[in-house]
Design goal:
The structure holds 2 protein chains of 2 kinds. By secondary structure, chain A is α/β, with parallel strands linked by helices. Helices cover 36% and strands 14% of the residues of chain A. Chain A has 11 helices and 9 strands. The chains are: A alpha/beta, B alpha/beta.
């Protein structure tokens, strides 16, 4: 068996889960696992990214993902810079490619990019010389979220293969759902999607998932219930009639969760809309809810991704 | 245009005239701007003194192609295309008549503007450019334009270009009113509300890429609605380019009922399917979107059985700034004047359509829809000719495009058959040797 440090990630960028093998995913999760304890120590600092420059380029507002990437980079010793482009260059008419070229000229080693348009991170990755991590592009992919979800599940259930995972809510607009579906499928879990038809993309069954429109039916015998965020602008009549009706039929509370396995656990990528997709008490129930653990695993997973992508770089400043 | 007494003999040609069904070796004589004579026996005993001779080398000589649907961008977006550059692209593609779409800036919705386009084209274009006029004022979709006056000033058809006329009452009145002038109404059939958020075909590829889709019913619903309106008004209606099996079926059924409707297809709708979008290639972003494989096959079948009347380029030049963007932000459009012939010939080489039937969709059919004298080889017809090599293999190369823009998803595609010489009004405007 190979240890986490001997695993070599064979891709230049991390743009999505599609295209990763079970070995890639397992390798990243093992690497992340090694950082979990480290992150609980008083002294969290490493030096393997010393001398590296990491730019977090966010075209869409984000608090937790950006903070998580920033902490991950800093704990590995990288110089981390945050750029919120929504507020600056785009307003001045600078295009995505111009921004990419400008940043590239500053010789970063890793770009962490979030963008409201699907495919934008890939487009940017084609124009720069460094590694790019997709921190979420439109409704396409959010690979580090899927990896941190997988790490959270694996630590609590001991495995991914053979589990039944229900993903509930706004699948149509969700990059988290797309990344999770790919990852869970590759790792041998069964995925069930639960949502009203207006929140499901056409031909989503082609991803090898079961689809159902009823929460009780969808949650039956599942091991993990993953709730998705429903954005405010999609609530009032455009995709669902009202918040009240949505929570009534698709919200998760203790009674609905009773349909799942007795030891079923609840996840949410955050930020939560309490009382819209998830009941407040359930979200805070430490026996059933993994929501805080997900956030913790996020930092470890992002450290693993940063390390995996930068390890092939020449003149490593320091051995572990 | 050639001087009235200039005489040119095109000898050693394979004469192809879809209008008459002629497909025979022979020769053709042009005098001035018109065809004077043609046939298998012509110049059997040699060409008399004083006639310029073009040896066709056994290659195909047919009427110059007529493109019923092209954006030439002038006036208003001359950085993307002008009547001059667009006409050079047309000449290189074997197209001798281009019907220019009216959704320019300003839109061509008044007689003076129609005359402006015609005059600019006469002064700067090297092929025939016939203007189309807007169907509604300012392309606003509310008030119909002066169809009668516009027709008199030379508008060959009426359309709001890329914008479907969404209001059924406006469309109904336009169809009814246009019957007085026998005017052709062209509709880019798509229900705007259903297509509003979409940037590619709805389906598995869009779902995987996280892109919002245009459902196929957006097209079918608009075609069905319009066919009902045609049925009650008797207007002449042409669906610009169909891309869906169901909508093609609707037109097939309407034709069987005897409705005077026609429809078109673009080369990309039968040469590509939605998988060409690949990793967000914005050069494949187009309206109607590239569809699923069964729909692509339905377009081929519709062309083969005659349901689809014309092939048009859908030429939509777009600069880099409009395309080097995330997919959802990029503009819709593909250039096509220079690739229409070789892509259409794929249908012949693959055994889907006889050569004459295929050529009819780019010559005689569009000519009759637009009421043009061109599009046929006959004494008295305009000397608009295309000489092409049916077999020559080559690769499409964006570096050779004469269009100001390069937004073609076909760059690098191996194709078979290419124009050798394009003749407009008796004058050669393009030759392959000169044009590379």
């Amino acid at each position: 068996m190979t240890g986490p440090r001997t695993y070599v990630f064979p891709h230049r960028h991390l743009l999505g889960i599609e295209g990763l093998s079970p070995e890639d995913i397992g390798g990243l999760l093992d690497l992340a696992e090694s950082y979990v304890e480290q992150n609980r120590q008083v002294d969290k600092k490493q030096s393997i990214l010393r001398g590296r420059t990491q730019i977090n380029l966010f075209f869409e507002s984000s608090t937790r993902t950006r903070t998580s990437f920033e902490l991950a980079g800093k704990r590995l010793g990288a110089d981390v810079i945050n750029m919120s482009v929504a507020a600056s260059a785009i307003k001045k008419g600078e295009t995505l490619i111009d921004t990419a070229m400008t940043l590239n000229a500053m010789h970063p080693d890793v770009l962490v990019v979030r963008h409201p348009d699907s495919g934008a991170v890939q487009l940017l990755s084609e124009k720069v010389d460094c590694s790019v991590i997709n921190a979420g592009d439109g409704s396409h992919q959010h690979p580090t979220q899927a990896l941190l979800d997988a790490l959270t599940i694996r630590r609590r259930k001991g495995r991914l293969a053979g589990l039944t995972v229900a993903i509930c809510g706004d699948i149509l607009h969700s990059r988290v759902a797309r990344s999770n579906i790919h990852l869970l499928n590759v790792m041998g879990a069964r995925v069930r999607l639960v949502a009203p038809p207006t929140l499901l993309p056409a031909q989503v069954d082609r991803l090898g998932v079961d689809v159902c429109h009823d929460m009780r039916e969808g949650l039956a015998n599942c091991d993990i219930v993953m709730m998705l965020r429903l954005q405010t602008e999609r609530m009032h009549g455009r995709f669902v009639p009202s918040v009240r009706e949505y929570f009534h039929f698709y919200g998760l509370d203790a009674s609905r969760l009773a349909a799942a396995c007795p030891d079923a656990l609840v996840m949410h990528p955050g930020p939560m809309n309490r009382g819209v997709e998830i009941d407040s008490e359930l979200a805070d129930d430490i026996d059933r809810s993994l929501i805080r653990e997900q956030v913790e695993m996020g930092v470890a997973v992002r450290m693993a991704c940063l390390e995996a992508l930068t390890r092939p770089l020449p003149n490593r400043p320091g051995e572990r | 245009m050639a001087s009235p007494d200039r005489r040119t003999a095109y000898v050693n040609a394979r004469l192809l005239d879809p209008a008459s069904g002629l497909d025979a070796p022979g020769a053709l004589l042009t005098v001035g701007e018109a065809i004077a004579d043609l046939g298998p026996g012509l110049f059997a005993d040699g060409v008399p003194e004083g006639i310029e001779v073009v040896d066709c080398g056994g290659h195909c000589l047919c009427p110059g192609l007529i493109d019923i649907h092209a954006n030439l961008r002038e006036p208003g977006a001359e950085h993307q295309e002008t009547l001059a550059t667009g006409s050079q692209a047309a000449a290189a593609g074997g197209v001798t008549t281009v019907a220019a779409l009216p959704d320019t800036n300003p839109p061509i919705d008044e007689a003076a503007l129609v005359e402006f386009v015609a005059r600019r084209a006469r002064d700067t274009a090297i092929v025939n450019v016939v203007p189309m006029a807007a169907l509604t004022r300012g392309l606003g979709g509310r008030e119909i334009t002066e169809i009668g006056l516009l027709s008199q000033s030379g508008a060959v058809a009426f359309t709001d270009g890329a914008r479907p006329v969404a209001d059924a009452q406006v469309m109904r009145r336009a169809l009814a009113y246009a019957t007085v002038f026998d005017a052709l109404i062209i509709q880019p059939a798509e229900e705007p509300a259903l297509a509003a958020e979409g940037c590619m075909n709805e389906g598995e590829v869009a779902m995987r890429l996280g892109l919002s889709g245009v459902p196929s019913c957006a097209e079918t619903i608009m075609v069905e609605r319009d066919l009902r309106l045609v049925e009650s008004t008797g207007g002449r209606y042409h669906a610009a380019h169909l891309s869906i099996a169901d909508s093609i079926d609707c037109v097939r059924a309407a034709k069987a009922r005897g409705l005077a409707v026609s429809c078109g297809a673009t080369p990309h709708s039968f040469a590509l399917n939605e998988t060409a979008v690949g990793d967000y290639r914005t050069f494949t972003k187009v309206k109607p979107p590239l569809r699923a494989e069964p729909d692509r096959r339905a377009v081929v079948a519709g062309l083969a059985d005659g349901t689809i009347d014309v092939i048009s380029s859908g030429h939509a030049p777009l600069d880099q700034e409009s395309k080097r963007l995330p997919f959802a932000q990029a503009a819709f459009g593909i250039i096509g004047l220079e690739t229409m012939l070789p892509l259409a010939l794929e249908l012949h080489h693959n055994g889907h359509l006889p050569l004459l039937d295929l050529l009819a969709k780019m010559t005689a059919r569009p000519a009759s829809l637009l009421g043009l004298a061109a599009g046929r080889l006959a004494p008295g017809a305009p000397a608009d000719l295309l000489l092409f090599d049916l077999e020559a293999p080559w690769r499409i190369d964006e570096r050779n495009f004469r269009s100001k823009c390069k937004n073609s998803p076909f760059d690098g595609r191996p194709v078979q058959g290419r124009p050798l010489r394009t003749v407009v009004g008796g004058e050669t405007v393009y030759t392959a040797e000169a044009g590379g």
